[in-house]
């Protein structure tokens, strides 16, 4: 049986092979696996800006995959990516209404870029293709492909949360973007909560109907909407954690700890990750549980992100001030409680740090899934695992019942739970880790990929009621 060709559409394209592919993150691993299996196209932004970008994509082939890359003009980047995607949809979908900017010019540019991408993609499509579109940057592309007559099955996966109707309704273009989502044959979400909130909007605002099998009838169409969590490749993470580079990096840190426990946090420097709240909780741990002073070190690694966006510049300043305050109050001549590192590390180094960490501190204020939590679990030593302290607002909290679940806004609870994790017995740590590892293996990235694509293959191409 000939496999249907897959066409992946995402904001950024990750042309990887060899060693780079082996160390790629969860999304890239899943998409590369799917494309290599069926052959196909990976279409998206090249990451480059050009004064007069071409209407046709730049094409190159690697193995069974054709990469189709589109440049953006400077004004397109500012409106489509830096503006509507990252200063409107990103904060809104993460419940940060105080940071969301509603600019009509950004929205117009966002739609024009999606239209231009669709016009460049259509000539590359063949009858019978499966087109899999990813994330909030490209919501309208199905509408544009339908308008251009593309008769293919279209699937969309949202990697970030879908907000409650009350929050989503603040968006001036809320109706149009959901109408765009309804142009797909299949829409996928990370969690059952995201799916429920999408269905509630469909029913309340568009008069649609849905059933327990994921079938949605709305606007004269029928589509499917499902929840399928993305995962990681746990065996690959385990191998990376034991690699010579990971061991070397972890040993460098272990030497400086002098036997102290390590609390590890790894995030992009983003206001959704709850980093200031996390630091304040660690400060409370030192204040309220003085026995941990000089016995624990917290290493927070936060790679820079969107450094030209004002909200991110403000966040960096506040985190740096808070870090300095904590170290100024609690440091001793031979001990600094907090190591705040504002740069990235290789994935192998991070897996080594995870394996060393007695506590993995993953406390986003809101997150679609959070692969860091899954990687922390997969990197552990089965004989002496660490403890995952996890926000209830991370998507993966739904199936990691062995984690210590916290409300990241309640810094007193987080501090108390840090104490619980640091004093937990080996027997309980092992039992909790085994439960989590079972879930990480069950909900891995290959299951995510296969479940979504199997469902898309079964969906009809834009069938009417």
Uncertain spans = 17-23, 461-465
Counting structural domains, the number is 2
| CATH topology description of the largest domain | Rossmann fold
Radius of gyration, CA atoms, in whole angstroms: 23 Å
User: Quick one: how many beta strands?
Assistant: 16
User: In percent terms, what proportion of residues is strand?
Assistant: 15-25%
The assigned structural class equals alpha/beta
Number of helices: 17
CATH architecture of the largest domain: 3-Layer(aba) Sandwich
Strand order in space, largest sheet: 3-4-2-1-5-6-7-10-9-8
Query: What's the overall geometry?
Result: globular
CATH superfamily of the largest domain: Glycogen Phosphorylase B
Main sheet record: 10 strands, mixed
Mean pLDDT: 93
Report the helical percentage. Answer: 40-55%
Distance between the termini: 30 Å
**CATH secondary-structure class of the largest domain:** Alpha Beta
Structural summary, described in words:
A 10-stranded mixed β-sheet has the order 3-4-2-1-5-6-7-10-9-8, with helices on both faces. Residues 17-23 and 461-465 have low confidence and may be disordered. It has 2 domains: 6-231 and 445-458, Rossmann fold, CATH 3.40.50.2000; 235-442, Rossmann fold (3-Layer(aba) Sandwich). Helix 11 runs parallel beside helix 12 (310-330). The protein contains 17 helices and 16 strands. Helix content is 45%, strand content 19%. The longest helix has 21 residues, at 310-330. The protein has helices spanning 18-22, 26-38, 74-93, 104-121, 141-147, 165-168, 174-181, 192-206, 234-241, 244-257, 275-288, 310-330, 347-356, 371-378, 411-422, 426-442, 445-458; strands at residues 6-12, 40-49, 58-62, 65-72, 130-134, 153-157, 186-189, 209-210, 215-218, 221-227, 261-268, 296-303, 338-341, 359-362, 387-391, 404-406. By secondary structure, it is an alpha/beta fold.
């Amino acid at each position: 049986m000939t496999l249907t060709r897959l066409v992946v559409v995402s904001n950024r394209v990750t042309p990887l092979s060899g060693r780079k592919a082996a160390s790629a993150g969860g999304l890239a691993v899943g998409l590369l696996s799917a494309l290599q299996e069926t052959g196909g196209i990976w279409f998206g932004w090249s990451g480059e800006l050009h004064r007069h970008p071409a209407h046709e994509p730049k094409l190159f082939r690697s193995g069974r995959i054709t990469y189709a890359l589109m440049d953006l003009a400077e004004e397109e980047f500012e409106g489509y990516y830096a503006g509507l995607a990252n200063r409107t949809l990103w904060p809104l979908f993460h419940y940060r209404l105080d940071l969301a900017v509603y600019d009509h010019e950004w929205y117009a540019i966002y739609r024009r870029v999606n239209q231009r991408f669709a016009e460049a993609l259509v000539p590359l499509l063949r009858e019978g293709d499966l087109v899999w579109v990813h994330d909030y940057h490209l919501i309208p592309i199905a509408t544009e492909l339908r308008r251009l007559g593309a008769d293919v099955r279209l699937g969309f996966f949202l990697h970030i949360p879908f907000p409650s109707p009350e929050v989503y309704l603040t968006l001036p273009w809320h109706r149009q973007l959901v109408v765009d989502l309804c142009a797909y044959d299949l829409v996928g979400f990370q969690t059952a909560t995201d799916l429920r909130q999408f269905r509630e909007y469909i029913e309340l605002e568009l008069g649609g109907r849905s059933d327990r099998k994921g079938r949605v009838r709305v606007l004269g169409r029928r589509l499917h909407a499902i929840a399928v969590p993305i995962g990681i490749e746990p065996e690959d993470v385990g191998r990376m954690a034991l690699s010579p580079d990971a061991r070397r990096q972890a040993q460098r840190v272990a030497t400086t700890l002098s036997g102290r426990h390590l609390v590890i946090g790894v995030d992009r420097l983003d206001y959704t990750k709850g980093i200031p709240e996390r630091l304040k909780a660690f400060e409370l741990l030192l204040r309220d549980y003085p026995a941990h002073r000089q016995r624990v070190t917290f290493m927070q690694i936060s790679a820079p992100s969107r450094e030209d966006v004002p909200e991110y510049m403000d966040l960096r300043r506040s985190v740096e001030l808070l870090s300095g305050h904590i170290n100024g109050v609690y440091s001793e001549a031979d001990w600094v409680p907090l190591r705040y590192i504002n740069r990235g590390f290789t994935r192998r180094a991070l897996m080594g740090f995870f394996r060393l960490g007695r506590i993995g501190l993953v406390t986003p204020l809101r997150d679609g899934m959070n692969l860091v939590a899954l990687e922390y679990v997969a990197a552990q030593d089965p004989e002496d695992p660490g403890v995952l302290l996890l926000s209830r607002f991370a998507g993966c909290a739904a199936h990691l019942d062995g984690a210590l679940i916290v409300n990241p806004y309640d810094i007193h609870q987080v501090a108390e739970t840090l104490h619980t994790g640091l004093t937990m017995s080996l027997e309980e740590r092992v039992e909790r880790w085994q439960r989590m590892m079972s879930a990480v293996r069950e909900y891995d990235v290959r299951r995510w990929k296969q479940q979504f694509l199997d469902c898309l293959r079964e969906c009809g191409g834009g069938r009417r009621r």
